[in-house]
Prior knowledge:
Layout: H1 16-19, H2 21-32, E1 37-41, E2 49-55, E3 58-64, E4 69-73, E5 88-90, E6 95-96, E7 103-104, E8 110-112, E9 131-137, E10 140-144, E11 170-179, H3 183-190, H4 196-199, H5 201-206, H6 254-259, E12 261-266, E13 270-275, E14 279-288, E15 291-300, H7 302-306, H8 313-337, H9 352-368
Antiparallel strand pairs: 1-10, 2-3, 2-5, 3-4, 4-9, 6-7, 7-8, 9-10, 11-15, 12-13, 13-14, 14-15
Helix pairs in contact: 2-9, 3-8
The protein binds FE2/S2 (inorganic) cluster (FES) and fe (ii) ion.
FE2/S2 (inorganic) cluster binds at residues 76, 78-79, 81, 97, 99-102.
Amino acid sequence: MDTPLLDHCPPTLPREAYVDPAWFAREMRAIWSRDWVCAGRTDQFPAGTIRRIAVAGQSIIVLHDGASLRAFQNVCRHRGSELCATDTAQRGKLITCPYHAWSYATDGRLVSTACATPTPDFRKEDHSLLPVAATEWNGFLFLSLSTNPGPLEPDMGLDALAHWPMTTLKTGHVLEKTLACNWKVYWENYSECLHCPGIHPELCDMVPIYSKGIMSPAEDATSDGTPKAPLKPGAESWTMTGEPSAPAFATLTPQERAEGFRFVTLWPTMYIVAHVDYVRAVTLTPINPEETLLRAEWLFPPETLARPGFDHRTVTDFATIVMEQDGAACEMNQRGLRSPAYTRGTLMPQEFDIARLHGWVKDRLSTGAQP
Ligand code: FES
Ligand SMILES: [Fe+2]
């Protein structure tokens, strides 16, 4: 049987990768300023409003122009004022700078210089807003600061959630938390299950294979290759009881229902866990080398949310417990990484996904340090 296990024990990234401001600045340029970053659900950008979003520390405005979502640098072409000084603002037909009232159309074209009277050498077309690449996938908006962004590349492919009604799902609950750890520490923890037996009793009960410290039967040397039911007998979804919050999505294949859940990962910004009855999306935003904002959003069909007596906690408490456990483990890991006595560690064969992450980070840093 094919095994994903590493055939050697490679070194980890060095300590600096987790604590050093200079390393962090390189990652901001080479990764977070170039790759697609999730900016939220598309329904969080209603027509008539402007939202201010931070991407890799840069301020971006996002608006709906009636046909699609558009993003621009939050900077006026006159003398550089912020165009939007609050997280959300109402807008009229035009985007008007609050300083001297230059106005732009929703496609970024400069329309008016208000009281200023330019001479003939001034060409309005040379002073449009600076566009930021935007794309939508599964009801999420993604932004890239790159002038030439690559394709969106989730690990399971763009169609991984094609049978889930992703664009019609609505947000039922949000958890936001600042974790005292480097963003890669969170991804590393996400990428292995060696910690599961010690850290996640509830999750190991729900997904029995996790109690062996592995993520799939392919990692089990004693397995005969027969896929095992991923959830414990009787459970159909990650909820407090294992009972789904609604009938399974009718569009799922029998195999997708039998899988019980599907993880889709999009470095560096998000992962999605799709269950038979709801979906959870988790995004990461690095704040500084040792702090990361975690945002988890639970998405449900509108009918589930509208059901009388529906209490999202019967669903959301389960993954909240797991994420609290992971967050505490990540912060514990980060505190250890601060020790100057630590230089770097060693990956075990089961940490093949961390090795892949480290390879990806090193590759990005070597090819993309100069935006
Ligand atoms: S800086 Fe925006 S109009 Fe002057
Ligand atoms: Fe975990």
